[in-house]
Amino acid sequence: MRLSRIGQHVDQIDRKILGFFQHDTRRIAESIGAEVGLSAAAVQRRLKRLRNEGVIAAEIAVLDKNAMGESIVTCIVTLSMASAPAPGEHLDRFRRQMVDHPMVQQCYHVTGSSDFIVIVIAKSMEAYGTFVRRWFESNPHVTRYDTHVALERVKVGLALPVD
Asked: 37: number of CA atoms within 13 Å, CB side?
């Protein structure tokens, strides 16, 4: 058994339930129960507990960009920031800006030759250009950024290994 963030146990059955649930939250508890050897009610109780404990952080809808009838550009940006006597302040400010921006789908503070990797979703290259000028080029702490435009979505997901 492993402990969740708040100290409750996440056992092997919870992990099996989460494995099915994270790939399809619409799957009925009866179907999951048949896979893990529990009743539908027992699966529902466990899912409720896992939600309450914060193990299930969110249940979201994944939209098909083609069905939305709009062109969507996915840009993967590697970004470097200048070192400063107190670097935490400008890094924290940048993190908050990225968290709050609706075009930023993901943002990672990373090791290596860059400081951040930012996944930006834009309606057009012009919209991405506006974003870059506002959030990267006008930021005095950003020393370099490189943009990689996705040609194809091969795999997109947030599933975690539960075994």
From this structure: 4
Class of domain 2-52 as given by CATH: mainly alpha
Look at domain 73-149 and name its CATH class. Answer: alpha beta
Please identify which residue in the block is written with the tokens 């009838």: 69
In 3-state terms the chain splits into helix, strand, coil percentages (rounded to 5) of: 35, 20, 45
The model's pLDDT over 119-150, given as tens digits with 9 standing for 90+, comes to 999 999 999 999 999 999 999 999 999 999 99
Alpha-carbon distance 2 to 150, whole Å?
Answer: 37
Question: Three-class SS string for 23-34?
Answer: CCCCCCHHHHHH
Region at 99 (left for phi over 0; alpha for psi -120 to 50; beta for the rest): alpha
**pLDDT tens digits, 35-63:** 999 999 999 999 999 999 999 999 988 88
What are the residue ranges spanned by the domains of the chain? 2-52, 73-149
